[in-house]
Amino acid sequence: MSLHRLLLVEDDADMAAMLAAYLQRHGFHVTRADSRATALAALRGGRVDLILLDVSLGEDDGVAICAEIREAQDVPIIMVSALSADHQRMAGYEVGADDYIAKPFNPDLALARIRAVLRRAGRAPSLTHRKRDSVLRFGGWRYDARRDEITAPGGWQVSLSSRETALLRVFLANPLIPLTREEIAAALDDDDGGGESGGGRAIDMLVGRLRQKTDPALIRTERGLGYVLTTDVARDDA
User: Sorting pLDDT into bands at 50, 70 and 90, what band is 121?
Assistant: First the structure.
């Protein structure tokens, strides 16, 4: 349901742009960084599910950055390097890297490695407090994921269709993150176990129905992109 959030640390602008675009087409939310400072700032700025970390970053050392990150958190890290020597691989593994990809590589290989590492790490694509057994609060509203019940700020329950509820879950799993229509459709199809959401017009109509039944201010249109849930989400199981 939630998009995996990847941090791509690469100082080759052309390579970073190509790889980020490819991963975004395959349903990932990608943040780019090109140095130790920007990478650490991105990690402080929000959730990251996996890091693609280039070994050579100008004056910065990717292996040292990996070691620094690993001291603070266990986010999966895949090292990327033009050097394929065994000692380079071992240096990455010794400081806690989860996998290693040698340049040049096929983007399909990177995608397969990313998915494999995420599976091994057992990391859910949403924050822990947004699991399906949670009670979530957002902008005065309440969603009980265990019962699929939506309660308005005034205390009355709102009736949503199964598809509208699935769309709400997509937004609740990705608060404050602009989502394209394609990303929303992919998340809905995943929720359906491989169903078919239709094109952008179908998503627009579904969003419109959800707005009418809740609060139009909760979901903002991002011109030229898609939609964003305008409020953060908090767990409340009391």
Answer: low
